[in-house]
Amino acid sequence: MNGCEGYNAIAKVYDKLNAEIDYSAWADFIETCFQNFLPSRPELVLDLACGTGSMTLELDRRGYDMIGVDGSADMLAQAYERAEGNPDILWLKQDMREFELYGTVGAVTCCLDSLNYLLTPADLEKTFSLVHNYLDPDGLFLFDMNTPYKFQQIYGNNAYILEDELVWDEGTDTEERAAVYCGWQNDYHPDTGICDFDLSIFEELPNGTYRRSDEHQQERCYSMDEIKKALANANLEFLGVWSDRHFSIPGDTAERWYFAARAKK
Q1: Which of 231, 13, 40, 21 is nearest to 142 (CA)?
Q2: pTM for the complete prediction?
Q3: What is the pLDDT of residues 129-144, one digit of tens each?
Q4: What pLDDT, in 10s, does the model give residues 57-73?
Q5: DSSP string, 181-230
Q6: Which CATH number does the domain 151-219 belong to among 2.60.40.10, 3.30.420.10, 1.10.8.60, 2.20.25.110?
Q7: I need a surface site. Which of 22, 28, 109, 176 has the fewest CB within 10 A?
């Protein structure tokens, strides 16, 4: 099962609602991992579940040949528009559980807890196996996942309001500042490890009215043991896990785990 069917409602405002993410600093972390765990700089990199392409574009700017794979046509449309038709990036609409490439890559990245959207251990292991299949021998897999602490204490049954401003421009010659609000209700089920997210997005239009879109998503909480087992079953060697991009050792209150694994062939 996949806990995100389309990202239809949120695609156009996704980057605004995640404006606090420092992709440049995250890319610095990725490149440090390349230096630490690879014999040489990878030429071709796959950004799996690339979304609107923020990391894909950041790594492209740093000279890597990039492939961006995502299951959402709406998110990829935003990525393609942001890339301004850059012919050096290959964008593929594919489910991460079934993706296919033309050959192998030197490294795979998968950012922003995208793997938590896989709702069964079988799907997680299947995705890991595909990553292994398309990595060069000793190629590097870098990914992050939300922790049990985050599911239990941050998500839980809590509700949040996210808001920002965006530029409204639908074929007009003038740009106007407009508000976007996202109501986010969580419903975490400890017995299954599934958290339901119900999102309502309100976009302000030039005439002062709001356009509402609703979306339902799900993520699954995985334990450290489950993740390591899935890596081992996919023949991916666990190299390390950290709680931040400064390579800190994870504590009990870590909200995100950053993993590095190597393809054994």
Answers
A1: 231
A2: 0.89
A3: 999 999 999 999 999 9
A4: 999 999 999 999 999 99
A5: EEEEEEEEETTTTEEEEEEEEEEE-TTS-EEEEEEEEEEE---HHHHHHH
A6: 2.20.25.110
A7: 22
